[in-house]
Fold:
Amino acid sequence: MKFKFYNYPIVIYLFFCLYFLPFPLSGSFAGNSDVIVHTSLFKEYFFNIKEFLGLGNYGNSFTPLKGSALFLENSYGHTLLFIISKFLGAIDYFATYIILVVMCVLNGHSIYKIIEHLTKHTRAALIFGLFFSSSCYMLSNIELLNDLGFSNIVFHVFCT
Structure:
């Protein structure tokens, strides 16, 4: 059976799902203290939504600060992914794993679309998308979720 060209983004998705899977399976975050701070901020938003819906009183994860989001980086897209994952029952390790996989897949798919548009060669586009998203630059900034997600804006604007 011949592999269809439109299945290549699925290859990028499966690659990153398997590549980052050891992190949540071992019960660890991918990154350093930035990931832990982001996770705490995401959980604070999650708890605020649950309190607003009347599902309990959870307090603040940055006691004694109130409104700690003013002092931290606001990543609303990442927060939305985390909150959806938490409402679906994921623990923190898997919720941050989902964010990381989605960011890398979007980067790889964006590069894939650009290279496919410029060269009209889908296999080269797939290889370049995988190489870019798993490059040393991207993996060295694995704890900086905002840096991983910033390139998506530029590449998707180019692709549209």
